[in-house]
Design goal:
The protein is an alpha+beta fold. The protein folds into 4 domains: 136 residues, N Utilization Substance Protein A, Chain:P, domain 4, CATH 3.30.1480.10; 71 residues, OB fold (Dihydrolipoamide Acetyltransferase, E2P) (Beta Barrel); 64 residues, 2-Layer Sandwich (GMP Synthetase, Chain A, domain 3); 52 residues. The chain has 12 helices and 16 strands. The strands form 4 sheets. Strands 1, 2, 3, 4 and 5 form a 5-stranded mixed sheet that branches. The chain starts with a strand and ends with a helix. 26% of the residues are buried.
Length: 429
């Protein structure tokens, strides 16, 4: 069988495998696919018969790579026929018999060497091979990264700063499975304002997403601002959380506040079923030792640890910590609106700088919170106002329910008719 030689093929495979962290088998597969595309380009250019090549025309062709002898062969699988109409896909029975296939029969398939001459392969085919090889190697790398990291989405990993691209930080991330580092992107919106992203600095990052597409750049999207990072840091620092004695119920985080005058802040609600355990104290630790580790990792971010409660009023009051709450009035449980009454000297503390405290408390509890001055609050007027709103809301809901019921009755009527018709048709058949 003839062969197109590729001097240095063995060294090429070794170098690509080492530089791109790909198995030699994967590199060989990419080279085979690239050479097949190069042969396809060669055949299209040499199309003397002006034949129409469909997209799947070359599916019966393959490339056999000979690493030891440093070369390749092109083979084609052809069907044995009486009279040949397409020489790329068919071969005459008489020709097969002349080649020594005395037992060959019509309809059988044979694999034949169709390797072009060394000089015929051409510069254009070689360029096509080079371009396809680069793309195939990128595809192989992306697939390996996806397989390595897809099960690690939503976990925290160690990362090292490599370089900066526009406003993003490109980091080197290790999966921990003994594989080399992989590049990940930390966009501007996922960064912390107090972080110092200097070259080779290390950070704990939250793996937010592993991209599957063919877009350029890193496949891994990581975050320093995601609430999942806070959950991990507490779980890693508080043994009671890891032992499931204490559980984290909810987290509300504002790592990048809308104003530069307001610092990052997080509220975290914890609970326990063990009466002998203080969940808040367990998270804070002796003299704040445990929470301080988390705060240091987040570069001084303020963290409020509060006790979760099944009672919404108690939970809302706790969530507004460090403000002292005098009364929580659940004005409308259906739309989850509440009025929180505080003393005048607690107003600014409850609202927080530029509304950050009440905003985080609302996100943590899922209630719309209005902070009111207790001394100026008119209970009767507020009750009457909400009673009118509730009455109007109930009336609208009832009207909507009546319309839905009428529509449903019509659907049922037509549905029964259709069912009867189908039943008659089945019986007739």
């Amino acid at each position: 069988m003839s062969m197109v030689t590729l001097p240095g093929l063995k060294d090429l495979i070794e170098n690509i495998s080492r530089e791109r962290n790909l198995p030699r088998v994967a590199v060989q597969s990419a080279i085979r696919e690239a050479l097949l595309k190069g042969y396809e380009r060669y055949r299209r250019a040499q199309n003397l018969e002006r034949r129409q090549f469909d997209e799947d025309y070359f599916d019966n062709f393959d490339v056999q790579l000979d690493v030891e002898d440093e070369g390749f062969r092109v083979v084609a699988t052809k069907t044995i026929v009486e009279a040949v109409s397409n020489s790329d896909h068919e071969i005459a029975l008489q020709q097969v018999q002349e080649m020594g296939g005395d037992e060959a029969q019509l309809g059988q398939e044979v694999v034949l060497d169709v390797t072009p001459d060394q000089g015929e392969f051409g510069r254009m085919a070689a360029m096509q091979t080079k371009q396809v090889l680069a793309q195939k190697l990128r595809d192989q790398q992306r697939q390996m990264v996806q397989e390595e990291f897809q099960d690690l989405e939503g976990t925290v990993l160690q990362a090292r700063v490599l370089r900066f691209e526009r406003q993003s930080v490109i980091m080197a991330v290790n999966s921990g499975f003994g594989q080399p580092e992989v590049e990940a992107e930390l966009p501007k919106r996922e960064q912390l304002p107090n972080d110092n992203y200097r070259a080779n600095a290390t950070f704990k990052i939250y793996l937010k997403k592993v991209s599957q597409g063919q877009q350029r750049g890193p496949q891994l999207l990581v975050s320093r601002s995601d609430a999942g990072l806070v959950v991990y840091l507490f779980a890693n620092e508080v043994p009671e959380i890891e032992d499931e004695v204490v559980r984290i119920v909810a987290v509300a985080r504002e790592a990048n506040p809308p104003s530069r005058h307001v610092g990052p802040r997080t509220k975290i609600a914890v609970d326990t079923l063990d009466r002998d355990v203080d969940p808040v104290g367990a998270c804070i630790g002796a003299r704040g030792s445990r929470i301080q580790v988390v705060v240091n990792e987040l570069r001084g971010e303020k963290i409020d640890v509060i006790r979760w409660s099944p009672d919404p009023a108690t939970y809302i009051a706790n969530a507004l910590s460090p403000a002292r709450v005098d009364e929580v009035r659940l004005m409308d449980p259906e739309t989850r609106q509440t009025h929180v009454l505080v003393a005048e000297d607690q107003l600014s503390l409850a609202i927080g700088k530029e509304g950050q405290n009440v905003r985080l408390a609302a996100r943590l509890t899922g209630w719309k919170i209005d902070i009111k001055d207790k001394a100026k609050y008119d209970h009767a007027a507020e009750d009457a106002k909400f009673a009118d709103v509730r009455a109007q809301y109930t009336s609208e809901v009832d009207d909507s329910d009546d319309e839905d019921l009428e529509d449903k009755n019509q659907e049922d009527l037509f549905g029964d008719k259709n069912f009867d018709e189908n039943e008659e048709e089945l019986n007739y058949q």
